[in-house]
Design a protein that fits this description.
Blueprint lengths: L1 H28 L1 H7 L8 H10 L11 H35 L9 E5 L6 H6 L5 E6 L15 H17 L4 H7 L8 H11 L2 E11 L5 E3 L6 E8 L6 E7 L9 H10 L5 E5 L12 H10 L2 E4 L13 E7 L15 H9 L18 E7 L4
Parallel strand pairs: 1-2, 1-7, 2-6, 7-8
Antiparallel strand pairs: 3-4, 3-5, 5-6, 8-10, 9-10
Helix pairs in contact: 3-8, 4-6
Length: 378
């Protein structure tokens, strides 16, 4: 019996030694295995990133300007850094909460959908930093990336400061201000602001292209200015290529571009979608925005929002709801139709389990957050 056991052991050892080299060889010959072991470093576009770092107040290296323009830039840089510090404190708290409370799904999200976003890149990427794709949309003009010749001078810097002021102070862009702030002689649309914000958070841009939607709802190159900006980027120090799309479009039921509707209906079902909503003007509480509201409720696996997003009543049946912060009546600028009595009642009935929200996000201060997780089978 002992001899038999010894023989069996020797056979197993010999088999293992024969198989191991084969497995290593397979790994060496398998491109996907090689890619997993050592991803190819990504490279940003030097010209684009120099411009974005300059206008983000990070660096003026390689930029030709007069002494007066350089002095104005230094003042502008200091002001942007001050505003960024305010935003960074809020986003650090946001990230901390997401790491702790969204750990069950945070890394499962491969697409973030963010209607009514304006130029807000920072919050969706803070909450869901590892998504492959971010789809933002708003009424504001898509615009174009910075050109080869950069404008310098006080007027230019002040235009960018104004564009970022309310967002970095309050966490959201003010719609009526964006009409002027993001489309003027100094600033061409949302694209420059999005890329500036990328630079402030340590991202490098690989490429920017103007796109458009064809009649099938597919994205194609615009060949010039378009209604969509596609930006490929990555976090410095990583090899994870990510893509952001900004769609300049109206999502009102009657005014929604049929091609954008086709894009959503064909794209959202293919992904693990987290929808993020903030300071959305309570539009989806109105009869004219039921389609975009229903797409979110139908195709999102998770929804993170303040009370200005999808009404609680549209999520209550198919999602498990976690509440944060304090529910207050919407600001007086919004009508009584925006008050959610059922959400208010839920906050009061479940007060003991409502989680704290240690930062301002959206219109009200103190603020509220709702996290909705789709129920199994729904």
């Amino acid at each position: 019996m002992k001899t038999s056991k010894l023989t069996a052991t020797l056979v197993l050892v010999l088999l293992a030694s024969a198989i191991a080299p084969s497995c290593r060889q397979l790994s060496q010959n398998d491109p996907s295995a090689t890619a997993r072991d050592a991803l190819k470093p990504l490279k940003g576009d030097e010209s684009i990133n120099r411009a974005t770092r300059f206008y983000a107040g990070i660096s003026k290296d390689g930029i030709s300007m007069t002494a007066a323009d350089a002095q104005a830039w230094e003042k502008y840089s200091a002001e942007i850094k001050r505003l960024l510090d305010i935003s960074a404190r809020t986003r650090a708290q946001c990230d901390s909460l997401a790491k702790k409370d969204f750990s069950d799904f945070r890394d499962s999200v491969d697409m973030v959908f963010y209607p009514f976003s304006g130029a807000d890149f920072l919050y969706p990427v803070t909450i869901f930093p590892n998504a492959d794709t971010y789809v933002l949309c708003g009424l504001e003009k898509a615009g174009s990336p910075f050109g080869a010749t950069l404008k310098t001078g006080y007027a230019q810097y002040d235009s960018y400061r104004k564009a970022l002021l309310s967002f970095l102070n309050r966490s959201y862009f003010i719609t009526k201000d964006m009409k002027n702030d993001l489309d003027n002689e100094q600033l061409d649309g949302v694209c420059p602001v999005l890329t500036m914000l990328m630079a402030t958070d340590g991202y490098d841009i690989i490429s920017i292209e103007n796109m458009k939607l064809d009649s099938s709802g597919s994205l194609v190159k615009a060949g010039g200015s378009g209604t969509v900006v596609q930006c490929k980027f990555f976090k410095q120090g990583t090899s994870h290529e990510q893509t952001l799309y900004y769609f300049s479009c109206d999502v009102n039921n009657d005014r929604m571009d049929p091609n954008f509707r086709k894009y959503l209906l064909s794209t959202l079902p293919k992904h693990n979608v987290a929808t993020y909503l903030k300071a959305a003007s309570y539009l989806m509480h109105m009869p004219g925005f039921t389609h975009i509201r229903d797409y979110i409720a139908r195709y999102s696996q998770w929804v993170v929002e303040d009370d200005s997003g999808v009404p609680y009543s549209c999520l209550a049946t198919d999602f498990d709801i976690t509440l944060y912060g304090v529910y207050k009546r919407p600001l007086m600028v919004f009508t009584d139709k925006c008050v959610q009595h059922d959400l208010d009642s839920l906050y009061k009935a479940t007060a003991a389990s409502v989680k704290p929200l240690p930062f301002r996000i959206g219109y009200n201060n103190p603020s509220n957050w709702l996290c909705a997780r789709r129920k199994k089978g729904k």
